[in-house]
Every structure is written in structure tokens, then in C-alpha cells.
Amino acid sequence: MKFGGSSLASTSRVKNGARIVHSFSSGNKLVVVASAMGEVTDQLFEIGELAQKGEARMTRRLLSSLQRFHRAVAVSVGGRKSGRDLATTIDQLNLELEKTVEGILHLRELTSRTRDYLLSFGERLATPIFASAMRAEGVRARALTGGEAGITTDGNYGEARPLVEVSYHQLRRRLDSLLAKKETPAVTGFIATSVDGNVTTLGRGGSDYTASLIGAALDADEIWIWTDVNGLMTADPRIVKDARILSTVSFGEALELSYFGAKMMHPRALQPASQRRIPVRIRNSQKPNGEGTLISAKESDNRGRVVKAVSIIRDVGIVTVGGAGMIGAPGVAAKVFQTLGSNNVNVIMISQGSSEATISCVLARKDVDRAVRALQLALLGQGQVERIVHEKDACIVAVVGSGMKGTPGVAARVFSAVARRKVNVRMVAQGSSEYNISLVVSEESGPEAVRSIHDEFRLAEKLA
Ligand code: ADP
Ligand code: ASP
Ligand code: MG
Hints:
The chain is of the alpha/beta class.
């Protein structure tokens, strides 16, 4: 069971989570995965940025409010018996956090390795608090970090990749022995340890991934993700008011949705579960009796409905490489992608004009400047590429559904729906799985594009 930040955002939510664990604990072996509380990861990120800029006052103000927040929750969650131990643990972590932040302030330097260490405090503070709340409910919870539980990664800080077989082996050895003693491991989501022993993170939203890895390692019956919505929905309910919950979704569809849903789930989270065919259930921690969404290996029956959901990925930009000299010149595309790859820039979407005079790539907005510089250095002045331009205000709208496969006319409906609302489409791509059509539009018109497609395919209506 993984509890997201929204399900642990306050004392009462932490206690609510602990009651949920307790209510399912008899007769089941459970492993719990905890995210950082609420928006704590964002706040730690900001503290790092401020400290690097040398903004000492702001940095310390934010830091001390974070420290006080965790301490206050710890005091009210811990109860009388275990309260003192918990407070000591939290004080120690707070002190270690403070040293880290002072170090960044002093050096005005924030490497990706230090940033991972800084961000790790979110989960490392939340997990002992949550474990203590579970003990207060009578669950024999034991807090562990991802590394202690056995998750080992490469050293790609910020987006570390687990060494899967080693991690599975260690997870089984360590967690099975706790479970055999009737203990309930409570593992920090999101963070792990590199081969050389440093703290790493699995990328934003990575607690889902932790849960999936652990579920796969232990061959769990199910993996449950507790969050703040009733399940996976036809669109982000913050954008589409009448979005509807999806009761069953196939792994293929969920993969497309999570990859393009940005925040809803970590893009790689479903991989381990889907490889081992372990069903994933998404449920609302505020309404624990709801059925939620079941993601499984079963092809879902969409009863003739072609489109299942629409999602949006924000904060992206487009980089376009162009030049008449590119026409008919082999190898330009290879050079573009090689350059981006070796600069650690992840390409989310690609399109090439049929005239071959342009190649456009969609990237995370934070990577755009770096990508443009690298491409300028590698490609300009060689007679093929004449210009490299970029746009930073873009978002991707992804239309997903396994029923789209082999159904003609879906793309036409998508584009006319969007055009009717006067949204200009800058780029288009269709995934090879045919489960997905993606369009790039301006940041501003993204929500309207999502709503127009949601309406066109009548996603708010229940299936008969
Ligand atoms: P957690 O803190 O539990 O990890 P997240 O904030 O990461 O939660 O993800 C849950 C949020 O994802 C929801 O509050 C919702 O606004 C957003 N979301 C985006 N797309 C969808 C979708 N298709 N279905 C449900 N929620 C979605
Ligand atoms: N706390 C981390 C984040 O905010 C991981 C997670 O919530 O899944 O990205
Ligand atoms: Mg999340």
C-alpha cells in the first residue's frame, strides 16, 4: 500500500492512513510505502534553489517552518508512549537537514547529488511519523528507507534507475524476514541508495515506482495506491469538472495515461507490476470504501468506446531544427538525437515535416535552453542545419484508449473538436501502440483542448 503526499498532508490524514492500514492488516501481509507529507518535496526543492542563490533569510525561514511542521505533527501523532522516541528521531533528522542546507548556503553550490540528498528528507521525515501512527493503531510497523529495504540504483541522480534483479533479491530477503516476524515494513517512497552508497531519488512522483518495485519483488497479490481522488479518471478532475472514474483499465492504457498524465503517476511505475502481472488498484484515502480503479493485464472491455481518457503534460517546450540543406541529407536526425542524449535531455515527442526541412522535439521546459545550446554547438555551420528555434510555452494533450486501435476517424474527430474551440495545434504524434494520439498546444489553451476532446467523445457519460 502506497500513501501519496496528499494522503499524508496533515496529522489527521496521517492518522486516517494508519487506520486504513490497520483495517486491512488482519489476515494480510502488508508493506506500506510513504511519500513526503503534502507539498514537502516542492518546499525542499525551493529551499535548495534559494540556498544556492545565497538567499539566506528566505532559506532559513522556509527551513524552520518545515522543521516546525514535522515536529508538531510528530508530537501529536506519537502519543504518550512512543512520543519521545519519535520526537528524538525527528529532531535528529531536522538537525541533519539543517546542516545540509547550511552547507549549500555556505558553498552556494547545489549538485544533483546534493539535491537528491536534500529531497530525501521529505520521505525520511514522513515515514517514521507514519510508522508511529500505525503503531498507535496496533500495527507493528517498522520504518525503513528505500535503501535499507533493498532498492539499489545507478548514480543518475534525480532520475536514478533501479538495478532491478539485485533490488528484487535484497527486497525479498529483507522484507520477507520482517513479514515473517509479523511486522509491517513502512518504506520511504521515492528514495533509494546508489551502488556506491549515496542517497538517490527515482524522479518526481517516484513513490508509486517504489510501491510497484516492492510489489513485484514480493510477488504481491495486489498493489494499492492511496491518493486524493476516487481513482484514475477520464481526465484530471481539476480541469474537467464532470470527469468520470474509470473502473477498469489495462496496463497498456494506464502506461500511456501515466506517461502522459505527468502528475497522476510516475511514468515507469507500472513497469514492474505489469511485467509480473500484478493488479494495481488506485483508491481514495478519504473514501476508503470506494472501489477505485483496477489496472490489470486484462484487456478492458470498452464497449465500443474508442477514447478512454484525455490527459495533459505541462511544462514542456519545443525545439525545432531546420534548414533547406537537411532535405535528403542522411544522418541529421541521428545527430540531433545523439546530441540530446549525450547531454542527458529526454525527448518526449518527435515530429519531422514531410519536406524534411524541419525536425521538432518536445522536451521538458527546464531542458530547453541546454538542448538549444548543445544543438547549436553540434550542428550549426556544417551546411545542413541553418536554424534552431524554440518555444517554451507548450503542453501535450494525450488522447488514450485501446479502442482507438484500428478505428478510423478518431484523429479527425480529435482535431475538429479542438479546432472548433479555436485551439491551434502545433505538433502531432501517434504512439506506435495506437493507444494514443498526442498533440502539442500552447500552455494557455491546454485545459480548453482537454475539455473539447472530453466533450467530443462524451467521456462524462456512463457506459450503458
Ligand atoms: P499523490 O499525492 O497521492 O501522489 P498526486 O498529486 O501525485 O497524488 O496525483 C493525484 C492527482 O492527479 C489528482 O489530485 C488529480 O488532480 C491529478 N490527475 C491528473 N490526471 C488525472 C486522472 N486522469 N485521473 C485522476 N487524477 C488525475
Ligand atoms: N515526494 C516525491 C514527490 O513529490 C515522491 C512522490 O510523492 O511520489 O515527487
Ligand atoms: Mg504522486
